[in-house]
User: What shape does this take?
Amino acid sequence: MDIVIHSSFLPHTDPDASLVFYRDVLGFEVRGDTGYEGMRWITVGPAGQPGTSLVLQPVAVPGSGVTDDERRTITEMMAKGTYSGVNLATDDLDTMFERLQKHDADIVQEPTDQHWGVRDCAVRDPAGNLIRIQQLNQAGPA
Assistant: This one.
């Protein structure tokens, strides 16, 4: 029996800005864009990997049990990049970083050779989620 990662969820505060970042800056495909009562869920994923997706979702859906105070705390943590994030990988980190700079992405760290054996950079998406991008085909953890 095999098990795979099908989708993961990241919160957004501005669906249109998130769509531009993931589609136009990172180059992900849009696989779904669903709205309900003023909220929006956008499913994106890397080209050529139809079985793996990110679902960009509202911070807290009414009726989910998240209080207004918790919603404020989550939003504050997102703005600092401490609430949620994802690790990505590319076969050409330098070209990806140039693309991020060209699109005025919120750069947290330029490409760096880490002491644990990977080379990566870090940016924040429009909601503040931390996105680390690692160079593929290196020794060390993936």
Q: What stands out?
A: The two ends are 23 Å apart (CA to CA). Residues 2 and 51 are 13 Å apart (CA to CA). The chain has three helices and eight strands.
